[in-house]
Amino acid sequence: MTLDESRILxxxxxxxxxxxxxxxxxxxxxxxxxxxxxSDVLYRLTPGxxxxxxxxxxxxxxxxxxxxxxxKYPQSSLETxxxxxxxxxxxxxxxxxxxxxLDDYLLVLRNAGEGFRAIFGLLSRDVYxxxxxxxxxxxxxxxxxxxxxxxxGTPNDVIVADYALSEQHMERHLNLHRASDDAPAHSGLxxxxxxxxxxxxxxxxxAISDEWGSVRGYLKAIGVSxxxxxxxxxxxxxxxxxxxxxx
Length: 247
What we know:
With 247 residues, this protein is α/β, with parallel strands linked by helices. Helices cover 46% and strands 7% of the residues. The chain has a five-stranded mixed sheet with strand order 1-2-5-3-4, covered by helices on one side. Helix 6 runs antiparallel to helix 7, helix 7 crosses helix 9 and helix 9 packs across helix 10.
């Protein structure tokens, strides 16, 4: 599955920023562009990056980093720009990664239901355009993206392809990380974990189906309501009329 790479925004200090929209749903519609973006850490935004982001009209940032990460590396330029930031930590400061990425993803899904529930609660409000970020924009953010796209009815192969796009940015992310003064605090961020293979997300989606029936089954299990999912879909998926008007 090949996705439109115009969804990717090239920035200087942020390496994994892209529109979550512009992808198809199973019923032939499209997730709206310009509504929700996914990103790596935003505290490295340069003045040029701030100018590049201005036309997007970002109103809200949901930051999935741990409380310790947020305290040590605040995204201060967002406050200066008047953008609301909401911290929804998906892992505790004491989180120890599992032996494999799949095991770690399932550990997060099982333990962070309250956090994912909070994300969907925010998505059902008037918070757009918005960005959801974590540190590398790949794991915590990758899980959140998979759940959002799955809730919108995006096919699994599209979710997998979107996840895999992160890998092309990881070498640059690691180089920025090594060159910055935050490297000692994140010494556990090893190259072996800076991958985003299609197989990892494919296995994750299959495991979600095995344990909860589907992405929507998982969301129901953590308390996301049908009304919330309907509101989110209305906000993020083009109506049939919009698709007809563009053809």
